[in-house]
């Protein structure tokens, strides 16, 4: 059992024993990973992602079953969704809000959280809003966010495009300063490139209350990511990732233009770099190539969703072991005022 971080606002607000939240990664953060993180003292957010009702129901129920009898861990279980997809179909969220085991929090990313915030407030469920720019902060605060996640472009998967996005290292303290002036009660998590204790310690020193961790827990034994994909990813460095809209086009994902996707920069991606408009205009043959790569688990043609922190990850471990190691290493680096 990790100790309490009694001086930390995030652990206190959510009854955690470490200031870590699991990123709700679509199709990777399932019930087993969320439950393992919650049991280890972190906030475990099931990856509701695109709002598929059957997937969300299966994985959230799996997490609840795995945590049965452990009330402390159950109180750390939540869920996350892609906001613009909820605007198209909110059935998964409605199902979640009808469950007897209410989520510890709901995280909304990539869109206006306002239409869903009232339902969360009605049930006293904290809203976590992920943002990528200072300009997005007022909308999140107006929706009543209890927690802001400041996501830098280093992050894997979806985020702000490189033209408009920000580095975690500068975005976090700027948002921390803005919150101190405008909404000091709102908590702040850092996201993007945080994969070890140094990253967690740095996030706290920059003014965050904790960290949302994705790629490091994607590369865990409980993650639903394909085992071969995990092994390929362990050979990569941060230099081997790229952010673009290429894989969204190949997968038929109609994301808002301002957001794109970081993954390993493989052979198929390189074929279309600098020719995204041509790919978008006529994607047919490239899509077939991609789908054949998925079928064969050929990761030179299908995507692996990791961020720039992948170069800090060298082995697959159980999620609880990852969390303990990050926590212990961060403690060793931080002054007492950030800990107990």
Task: Explain the overall architecture.
- This protein has an 8-stranded parallel sheet with strand order 1-9-8-6-5-4-3-2. Strands 7-11-10 form a 3-stranded antiparallel sheet.
- By secondary structure, it is an alpha/beta fold.
- The chain has helices at 9-14, 31-39, 53-66, 71-74, 83-86, 91-97, 114-122, 137-142, 168-182, 197-205, 215-218, 227-233, 246-251, 267-272, 276-281, 284-296, 319-333, and strands spanning 20-22, 44-49, 77-82, 106-109, 127-131, 147-151, 157-160, 187-191, 210-213, 241-244, 259-264.
- The protein folds into 2 domains: 9-225 and 314-338, Alpha-Beta Barrel (TIM Barrel), CATH 3.20.20.70; 228-296, no CATH class.
- The model has no long low-confidence stretch (mean pLDDT 95).
SSE topology string: HEHEHHEHHEHEHEEHEHEHHEHEHHHH
**What does the average pLDDT come to?**
95
**What is the number of E strands?**
11
| CATH topology assignment of the largest domain | TIM Barrel
Reading side by side through the largest sheet, how are the strands ordered? Answer: 1-9-8-6-5-4-3-2
Q: Which of globular, elongated, flat, extended, rod-shaped describes the shape?
A: globular
CATH architecture of the largest domain: Alpha-Beta Barrel
Gyration radius, in Å: 19 Å
Strand content: 15-25%
Compute the separation of the termini in Å.
15 Å
Which CATH first-tier class of the largest domain would you pick? Alpha Beta
The helix tally amounts to 17
């Amino acid at each position: 059992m990790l100790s309490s971080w009694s001086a930390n606002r995030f652990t206190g607000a959510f009854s955690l024993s470490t200031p870590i939240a699991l990123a709700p990664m679509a199709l990777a953060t399932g019930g087993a990973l969320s439950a393992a993180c919650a049991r280890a003292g972190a906030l475990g957010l099931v990856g509701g992602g695109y709002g598929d009702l059957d997937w969300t129901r299966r994985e959230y129920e799996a997490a609840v079953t795995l945590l049965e009898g452990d009330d402390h861990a159950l109180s750390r279980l939540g869920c996350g969704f892609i906001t613009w997809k909820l605007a198209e179909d909110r059935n998964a969220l409605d199902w979640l809000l009808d469950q007897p085991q209410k989520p510890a929090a709901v995280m909304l990313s990539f869109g206006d959280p306002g239409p869903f915030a009232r339902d969360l407030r009605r049930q006293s469920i904290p809203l976590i809003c992920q943002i990528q720019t200072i300009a997005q902060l007022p909308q999140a605060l107006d929706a009543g966010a209890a927690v802001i996640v400041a996501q830098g472009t280093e992050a894997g998967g979806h985020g702000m495009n490189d033209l408009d996005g920000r580095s975690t290292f500068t975005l976090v303290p700027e948002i921390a300063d803005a919150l101190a002036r405008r909404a000091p009660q709102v908590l702040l998590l850092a996201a993007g490139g945080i994969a070890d204790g140094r990253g967690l310690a740095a996030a706290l020193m920059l003014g965050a209350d904790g960290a949302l961790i994705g790629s490091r827990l994607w590369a865990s034994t409980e993650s639903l990511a394909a085992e071969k994909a995990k092994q390929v990813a362990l050979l990569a460095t941060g230099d081997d990732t790229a952010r673009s809209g290429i894989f969204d086009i190949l997968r038929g994902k109609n994301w808002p233009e301002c957001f794109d996707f970081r993954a390993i920069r493989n052979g198929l991606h390189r074929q279309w770099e600098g020719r995204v408009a041509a790919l978008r205009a006529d994607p047919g043959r490239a899509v077939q190539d991609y789908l054949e790569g998925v079928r064969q688990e050929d990761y030179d043609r299908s995507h692996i969703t990791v961020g720039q922190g992948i170069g800090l990850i060298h082995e697959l471990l159980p999620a609880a072991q990852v969390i303990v190691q990050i926590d212990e290493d961060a403690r060793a680096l931080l002054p007492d005022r950030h800990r107990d």
